[in-house]
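ping. complex inputs:
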Amino acid sequence: MRLTRYFLPVTKETPADAQIVSHQLMLRAGLIRQTAAGIYAWLPLGFRVLNRIEQIVREEQDRAGAIELLMPTIQSADLWRQSGRYDAYGPEMLRFPDRKGTEMLYGPTNEEMITQIFLGSVKSYRDLPRTLYHIQWKFRDEVRPRFGIMRGREFLMKDAYSFDLDEDGLKASYEAMFVAYLRTFARLGLQAVPVKAPTGPIGGDLSHEFHILAETGESAIFYDAALEDISRDELLSADAATIARLTSLYAMEEEEHAKVAECPVPAERLRSRRGIEVGHIFAFGTKYSASMGLSVQTADGTSLHPQMGSYGVGVSRLMGAIIEASHDSSGIVWPESVAPFRVGLINMRADDAKVTSAADDIYSRLQNAGVDTLYDDRDERGGAKFASMDLIGLPWQLIVGPRGLERGVVELKNRATGEREELSLESALARLTA
Amino acid sequence: MRLTRYFLPVTKETPADAQIVSHQLMLRAGLIRQTAAGIYAWLPLGFRVLNRIEQIVREEQDRAGAIELLMPTIQSADLWRQSGRYDAYGPEMLRFPDRKGTEMLYGPTNEEMITQIFLGSVKSYRDLPRTLYHIQWKFRDEVRPRFGIMRGREFLMKDAYSFDLDEDGLKASYEAMFVAYLRTFARLGLQAVPVKAPTGPIGGDLSHEFHILAETGESAIFYDAALEDISRDELLSADAATIARLTSLYAMEEEEHAKVAECPVPAERLRSRRGIEVGHIFAFGTKYSASMGLSVQTADGTSLHPQMGSYGVGVSRLMGAIIEASHDSSGIVWPESVAPFRVGLINMRADDAKVTSAADDIYSRLQNAGVDTLYDDRDERGGAKFASMDLIGLPWQLIVGPRGLERGVVELKNRATGEREELSLESALARLTA
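pong. complex structure:
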């Protein structure tokens, strides 16, 4: 993409109302724009990152055998009355009448709806187990939206729902999602700590939250230092044994930790850091299947209420968490897996025909090789271009200038390490297309 | 995908409340499920088709140089007051206060928001022209939702917005979108007729609707028979000359046609068929840029209000239009470009180890070759499997049965033509992976 044809409104000023670094950087790097309190538009660069995060989440759901569908954003209040949650849910739920006065709501979650869909489709034990998921916009009418998209009102969430015949089945579905989450966060370049969670209003007896460790997290997490030793490779090849090991290690949110009479972790191994919650999984059994009358026939002709679980990931929130975990004083440092473009190509002298012709040629070659490239072809000073590229945080910068070209070299900069290298054009291309 | 692990609730019964064939087939083939009046969930098979349509729309927008972003579903009423449309818009707009009493709405379109975003980002003529688009859920509170997703309340739409320095620029942007639309509909396997439209409340002086000809269309279209002679190849390579030719041919909606004093088309060339509106483009000039105070600096230091246009495609509605245009008495006949799977593999005897082993092997080979395959591995009668496959309308059916296997052959059926052929397994695979 040529910057002269793109839409990338970056700014130098740090927005006064943005308190945390991810919010500041997302505004400055032209990723998002606020359109109302707690509501944001995803500008082209931010939209690309959102898509990449979403795609990794999707691939890991598919890999776990979950099946994607898409439920609507607007639901009827009557549906929520069937489970008894309509009155139980707080004012975070956006409720309104439609033009005929029918009570509607903007869905904050979909347990009722998926149970209703299942109810109309599945009659027999042979159709179980199934895990269904969707990635859809949700609304939570926060009284005090803040931290940009980290605690906005309209947000993108992946929510999955499992249906099993018995508790063993539910446990297996829960573990499959646990594995999917470990792999998802590892692929996003994040270190996520699974924390045993109280099950609260959703019910059931098994629940974990996944927290990204970052200074700006909402709550403190107390955990066994051994959790820090788990490698990315181990997470990427996670299985039931990995989960058993992980969940045997102590990790609690502040509030729950305070309730523990005697912490099982020796003081020298107990760590405390702040965490950003990016995922939450629940096994809640028959809470919805029983209240909404979902039954399936068993092999012996009797019927039962399926055992259910639900599994959420804050897709849009993950972008904030990634930035909180990966930035420096110059800007964002995207992990390769979610970077909006892999390479930022900088033409140092757009007013010099020779340099421009060389940079244009490199751009075509990168494009032909399928390397996502943002080409800064603007007629601007080099310094401004460097600052913008550092701010938007693409993994590689390829710098083409008149002095280098005379010597037959270009400069390749690694955004994460800051390392710069002079290379022949061919070597640089070989490196980036490898 | 194995059907024994999928979620595909097909039904034989024609739903009583579905009046048109696309609505009936979408319910019967397990593509959608109604969750409230005029609101639908997209079941896994329907979601796959929706994605394919969306992707073709996206590719043609990108090809036209439009840049994708994503605006939120919920907007503030104040934004719409700036353009004066808040009070002008009818009760189809879903309006509600949030928990603090701020007036909000579920966006039916985004002219105001994109103008606001542009206003905060672009100052100079050098940043024009630009066309931005998004593909997002919209809500239109229809008083009488009907025809399934064809006239539902929550629907997916692609809307693009162009910004130009002058009217010539606007004309070029308009033509680029016109070309994108012709290509999009041709790729979707549809014959679309561009109809000159009255500009109405959106203002401006240039507007076209794109109608798919189908018996169940909402309005009659009167047009020159010469429009039927335009080939798919011509549409796929459309340019300004194609548009000039197309728009020179008479095509009017009923109501506008009735106002024409003397129809320029000789009676023997005048056709009348019903049309489903799937796209609408407008050049409206400075209506929003002027009312919302969007100005850019020109090269000579003065400033001007950009000339704007907006360009909509009904993405979810297209699925209904495709089915209306492509079905038979047995079910849907998907064009290859949007089919949820390319091949339906039928195991005729899941209780026969030899047949199942052969079918399993074919399934792996199709998967390895990257052919999207839905594998009916259920232990059901062949007749029921045939009926389901015809209903869901995948382009190819590959049938593996005991008698054929003895002779070393499988059967390949083309859903559109109904043609069946016995082939060696290798020939069948070669055909499907070609």
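DSSP finds 15 helices and 23 strands in chain A.
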